[in-house]
Fold these 3 entries.
Entry 1:
Amino acid sequence: MKIQCSNCQAVFNVPDAKIPEGRSFRATCSKCNRSITVAPQHTGSSGSKETVIGMDASLSEVSDAPTAIAADLDVTSAYDSPLEVLEEGAMSALVCVDEPGRLKAVKEALEELNYYSSVASSVKEALSKLRYNQYDLVMLDEEFCGEVAENNTILRYLQPMPMTTRRSIFLMLISNQVKTLDNLMAFAKSVNAVINTDDIQKVKLVLERSMADHRRFYKVYKDTLQGLGAF
């Protein structure tokens, strides 16, 4: 359904499946940052639905995700994660990077590439965002929030994701161990590309090259699905 922000009048498209029933919603407009609260919606009610641009998610709803940090998923507390709604055709990126220098380089590169960046401040926030939003790109530092490369929670969450969902996400891993664009190690870690921390200032160029290779690789496959009406 098409919805409109009551403050800046920006129009967005929200899949009906993402509009929960019988509860209020609260979110922030991605254009003007105005907080909006919407009354509960009900299937089958007469008339059009009111403006809806987000929904709340309790921390307990992501507690079943695989995690290496049990304390970070304390289900006794609640964590609000609004649905992020963008204009149709806009590209979105989830940034799971907390080292200041790397974060600055990544955000600047994504801005130049015209991506809307959503920066996660913790593992639980990243998991909640991934559960309720579809991102074109995920930038993941393997040591995000103090985790170790061998047991990264977010990577473990993404690795077993169904291929129908996973192939629509370009996942770039930031590593201090793996060389930039090491395709063999990228395959071993189930990511699309790797950039070494020593090359982080070149992240825009690395992203452009690796994503162009990715598009070429999947072009025939996607063209076939589109011809069959399945994509």
Entry 2:
Amino acid sequence: MLNVLPSFLVGAIASLLLAVNVLAWVSLLFVVAVPKFLLPFPPLTRVLNRVLHWIGENWIACNSAWMSLTQRTEWDVRGLEGLNYHGWYLVVSNHQTWVDIFVMQHLLNRRIPLLKFFIKRELIKVPLMGFAWWALDFPFLYRHSAAYLEKHPEQRGKDYEATRRACAKFATISTSVMNFLEGTRFTPAKHARQQSEYRHLLRPKAGGLALALSALGDKFHSLLDITIVYPDGIPTFWEFLCGKVRRITVRMRTLEVPQELMEGDYEGDPAFRDAMHRWVQRLWEEKDGQIEALLAEARARS
């Protein structure tokens, strides 16, 4: 354990290990992804996808290794029992910090199929990581604003179709599709600007969830609902690297998605869209109450 060292030194070591990890595994991804791109034959693609997933899982395992080396975190986790590595999962979670991603990957690696996050299309330009997300078939979201669609009505629905095609790639290999329903990280400023009715959450967006269900609803075994709480305050990524995250609380539960929401035209059917919104809002009300209870429990223990 390196956290007996000064925190800035722990952060520097963790940053170095993280960077080395990225360079090493992205290099391996490149070796496998190039033939996948140049030789798009389904039997070969299926084999190469399995190799790419193996690389992704080992990348995450190495992240977990340097986390164990540099962190001294007290984990309070419930709900890992009964997860199926060979199943299809639709995963949702609250979102507060980049640390959320490392938390979920650390806890779920090799317990469910490789997590693939919905990512904004612009992020494909991020050096190294953009290529890695592309190679691993992460679904890129084409998000056009309401103002843009007002000026370019011919683009309406293309966001949906492009993302639907991305999700359809997952039909050939067990996959976990991760969607942060809030669409962005929680901050007090965003919460106030939204005038969110939830105490600890931003308003959820149901479109990505409806999209994934429409594309792969017949394959998802269940929805995995994750709630992440940092009892000592939401950490920055640098604080995480420095080993300053003392406690992390995580609750997971698997839920049945109502059959009537497994298929439907979210864009074109107002009744279906309203039903999806109501279901997501109930989910978020329960999550908000759970976060309040977990924070109260942590305060009582402190």
Entry 3:
Amino acid sequence: MKSIIVIGSSNTDMVVKTERFPKPGETIIGGEFFLFAGGKGANQAVAAAKLGGDVCFVARVGDDSFGRQAVEGFEAVGIDCHHVSTDPDQASGTAMITVDASGENSIVVAPGANNTLLPEHLSEVDFTAASLVLMQLETPLETILAAAQAARGKCVLNPAPAQALPANLLDGLFLITPNETEAELLTGVFPTDPASCVRAAKILHTKGVENVVITLGAAGAFFSDGNDHFTVSAPVVKAIDTTAAGDTFNGALVVGLAEGQGWREATEFAVRAASISVTRMGAQASVPGRREVEP
């Protein structure tokens, strides 16, 4: 299996559990406080590594304890950190997360050093050695565009957090993995059933995206390559914290594909991994190991 390059953010997550989310202007008393390693890029890199992938991570951290702890965590799970650089002038990224009694979350991110991951930091990355390049939207768009051009034909974009995307980024993507909200923003179609999933995927195909996987939360995931399509259902679980479910899904999916699994097998693998992650607190801490996910 060739390596998987993950380009993206690294954050430290500060999590408070509460019965409900506060209303605007309201102060409520919460429950337990947790400090977790997070950031969509880091979460996906760790997920891919813990699930058996050979992972190289490209990121920026601050010259602070959060940044040093993050790199130590990446190295502990076997991630190649040669392209994780330090910004001496910016703090490491942080996220404030509230988790309610049903396991839903509300997140505010302070990007810090993530905003200084620029195209110049890709100059020494060997894209030819990778089977897939996985990216998200918590780092500058110019860097994502540069990576998509450098690794055309092997780029996987998880378009989160949701935002409008330029046509030249979508055109030529190997795979895009929006959730329902992100799919609606990109296509104008909210995917509520197989027919609407097909409509949303068709729009993305016409924009130049080769393959589409739409994550559907507790309903599983939908796949389309423009000819074939199917839905993989998710097992019924009791959700405790959904913070990194999508990141776990993406990390698992690229591992399956890099190993040569077919689309259905890789999607089923990713759904199982994500379903396990929501039964645990935290982002990277909730990612299961390979043995837990094997059928």
